[in-house]
Amino acid sequence: MEQFIFLCVLILTILLQCECYKILLVSPIPGKSHEMLGNGLAKHLVNAGHEVTLITSTPNKKPIKNLTEIFVGDTLDKTSDHMGNVTKIMNKEIDVFNMNLVTSVMRRYSVMTLQHSDIQKLISDPTQHFDVVIAEWMFNELYTALRVIFDCPFIWFSTTEPFWLVLMTIDDPPNPSYNQDILSTNTPPLDFIKRVQELFCQVNGILNYYFKWNPTQKEDYEKIIVPVLKRLGKQIPSFDEVKRNVSLMLGNSHVSLGQTIRLPQNYIPIAGFHIDNNVTPLTKDLKTIMDTAKHGVIYFSMGSNLKSKQMPSEIKKGLLDIFGKLKQTVIWKFEEDLPNRPNNVHIVQWAQQHSILAHPNCVLFITHGGYLSLTETIHFGVPIIGIPVFGDQFSNMVRAVEKGYAKKVDLSYSMVEDLKVAIYDILNDSRYKKRAKELSLVYHDRPVPPGKELVHWVEHVIRTGGAIHLRSPALDVAWYKKMYLDLAAVLLSGLIILEYFLIYIFKYLLKLCSVTISKEKKRN
């Protein structure tokens, strides 16, 4: 009887401690990688017992308990056919380093999301309540306005490595003399020329932010959010005030993948949370292919947004030629079947990437260098060859090469021969696999798994009323004060006054001397 009472008390204690919170999760950007991360966040929070409302462009096929999904994908246009067209990129028809293009696309996504009829209904409902809002940061800060609408804390989630524009949302931008931009292929230590490049890049970006990107965000805030606040009878703070009051940032990053960087206390690295601890078993066909690969498997995937079928025909033919001469089995994620394939090349339109990388026979991963692919390859300890195409994939691959577990091949019409050399280099040099395993140990050696970490910090923000104690004081200091320009002005003013004073004294003494000399002359 005593044991039964103790058990009941224990269960009640656990239930009381596991308070259920209502969470609004904003992750509407189209694309498989964004979908995986948004669903990963939702999964961990739902499994922790919370009620989650997910704004998404790709809803789950099956309903999930305690998860409400608001579909906005009917208004968000897809960018993969334009920005991810491999042939156009190879022919330089698309500028893959155009930051203004990225920011304009992301601005359009945030505006279209907030203007969606279902979202307007949600944010205009005075009975709606959330304990916290979590939104994906992607070169736009408009979602911070949801904090004011629902009168609750706000958390950013970043899908990229932390860089100056990300860190500006919660603290100061890092020093460009040893920190590179998200699109930069420079790696520390930086020589004089590279330090100048990074300084110019950051200064140019900050000027763009304050004089171009931020004014457009203010316009969107006034147009979309202010009318809602008026209807709800709420106070209307300035957009600058709204975006500064962020509790913390959950970052899809980890030191094993990126650069060692000084981070504020309200930046929490949680890379790998989207990977299930229990890997889904391979389909029967894939399992047979991988189990019977005597010399190992090379997995080739250019991600979900890039279409391999858009590659020039001579590149596809060349790749099949070099794959056919390998003793390894090749699994190529391709959108359609390829005729005249070698016997060791298998085409799959959809691949269980985690399950393939987890298989002991996977010896090499050929990828576009997206951050999720790099996270997964380190998670499972597999060396890679990267063919970067867009955005941060270039800097991702430069870091991977620097860390010693990867080779990089440029996307060009000569890539077939370059890829052939890279494949043989990695397969014949055990140092690449060894280094992947070493970094995998660093990646896994954490106090708690990333999924548990993110749940803790979300709950911590709610329990502490917004985690004000983690807020950086840098957000309340004017830029000219941070640079001590006010001190420089005082010193300069002092020097000018001193200069005038010395000139006055000099003139006075000169005049005094001339008077004395004239008096002496009169006496003589």
How helix-rich are the residues, as a percent range?
A: 40-55%
| Average predicted local confidence, pLDDT | 90
Strand order of the largest sheet: 3-2-1-4-5-6-7
Question: Count the helices. How many?
Answer: 20
Question: Can you describe what's shown?
Answer:
The protein has 524 residues and is of the alpha/beta class. It has helices at residues 2-17, 32-47, 80-83, 86-90, 99-115, 117-123, 145-150, 164-167, 192-232, 239-244, 284-291, 313-324, 353-358, 371-380, 393-403, 415-427, 430-444, 450-463, 479-482, 485-523, and strands at 22-27, 51-56, 67-71, 132-137, 154-158, 248-251, 267-269, 297-300, 329-333, 345-348, 362-367, 384-386, 406-408. The radius of gyration is 29 Å and the shape is globular.
Supply the key terms.
524 residues; alpha/beta; seven-stranded parallel beta sheet; six-stranded parallel beta sheet; 13 strands
A few lines on this structure:
With 524 residues, the protein is of the alpha/beta class. 48% of the residues lie in helices and 11% in strands.
Annotate the secondary structure layout.
Blueprint: H1 2-17, E1 22-27, H2 32-47, E2 51-56, E3 67-71, H3 80-83, H4 86-90, H5 99-115, H6 117-123, E4 132-137, H7 145-150, E5 154-158, H8 164-167, H9 192-232, H10 239-244, E6 248-251, E7 267-269, H11 284-291, E8 297-300, H12 313-324, E9 329-333, E10 345-348, H13 353-358, E11 362-367, H14 371-380, E12 384-386, H15 393-403, E13 406-408, H16 415-427, H17 430-444, H18 450-463, H19 479-482, H20 485-523
Parallel strand pairs: 1-2, 1-4, 2-3, 4-5, 5-6, 6-7, 8-9, 8-11, 9-10, 11-12, 12-13
Helix pairs in contact: 2-18, 5-9, 12-16, 14-17
